[in-house]
Amino acid sequence: MPRRLSQQGWFRVVMLVIALEIIALSINFFYAPINVAAGGATGVAILLDAAFGINRALTVLIINIAMIILAAIFLDKSTVRNIAFGSFLLPVLMYITPSHRLVEDAVLAVIIGGAVFASGIAILYRLEASSGGTTVPPMILKKYFKINSALSLLAIDMVVTLFNLLVSGTNAFFLAAFSLVITSIVMRYIETGLDLKHQVTIMSNERLADIQTMLLQEDQSLTVFDVRGGYTDNNKEMLMVMVDNANYGRMLRRVHDIDQNAFIVTTNVHEVHGGTFGI
Fold first, then answer.
1. How much is the average pLDDT of 174-183?
2. 72-103 pLDDT tens trace
3. Over the chain, what HEC string results?
4. What pTM value is reported for the model?
5. At what angle do helices 170-192 and 106-126 cross, to 10 degrees?
6. Which residues contact 103 (CB under 8 A, 6 or more apart)?
7. Under 8 Å CB-to-CB from 255, ≥6 apart: which residues?
8. Which tops the pLDDT comparison, 173 or 233?
9. Burial of 7: CB neighbours in 10 Å, binned 0-12, 13-18, 19+
10. How confident is the model at residue 275 (pLDDT cuts 50, 70, 90)?
11. CB of 87 within 8 A of CB of 133?
């Protein structure tokens, strides 16, 4: 058992390094070369580099150290441990990773950079880790003032984004704002869309038994509920099936082949844990 835990620990460290390197790549290859700061400590670093030539990695390191001190004062030790590794490693990776403009078109750079950045952040969230920086103040505000951390983090990012107007102009500001939207969409998709399932409930007045037989023949697990019609007050049965995205369309066609008037309600389910797709 200790050996297994050790292997899991090493895997987590490797994934943390990969996630932080992805973030470093997004900054050094896409955002920094076009002087677009889309929030966070890395955004501040890009602004100071563009305005005064201050090394970006050094800026991120200083900000992260300050945030670790704040976390140590106002938050618990576990939070400090969760952010410490990323806070120190990210600036190191930013320093050793070459900085080069891969994409000439600024809009395309922001789209790709936002997607790459979101991928790294999403991995960190899955690992319950953080790259430090401006994620700390929202935690403090939530703990002491019950302010929603997502809203306060967005507010901080918007303030940083506004400084693009002073440093790089209007074009950079709109690109940075667009990048925040791209990052938000990609993160939401990574966190939920890649594991999307469909919870399907099926009712049929005449052919429910045939539909159930068809589903079982296709090794589709299902649950049968006893329900009562609100209008007719009649007792009926309803099938509940959990199906993945790839098999959803085929299942609907098979059901409608049996009963064109079958009543079907589908709900998107972001994650399913344990067991099979039914009972």
1. 93
2. 999 988 888 889 999 999 999 999 999 999 99
3. CHHHHHHHHHHHHHHHHHHHHHHHHHHHHHHHHHCCCCCHHHHHHHHHHHHHCCCHHHHHHHHHHHHHHHHHHHCCHHHHHHHHHHHHHHHHHHHHCCCCCCCCCHHHHHHHHHHHHHHHHHHHHHCCCCCCHHHHHHHHHHHHHCCCHHHHHHHHHHHHHHCHHHHCCHHHHHHHHHHHHHHHHHHHHHHHHHHCEEEEEEECCCCHHHHHHHHHHCCCCEEEEEEECCCCCCEEEEEEEEEEHHHHHHHHHHHHHHCCCCEEEEEEECCCCCCCCCC
4. 0.74
5. 40
6. 30, 109, 112
7. 202, 211, 214, 262, 264
8. 173
9. exposed
10. low
11. yes
Look up tokens 């790709």; give the residue: 112
Query: Which domains are assigned to the chain?
Result: 2-193 (no CATH), 196-269 (3.30.70.120)
How far apart CA 59 and CA 94 sit, in angstroms, is: 11
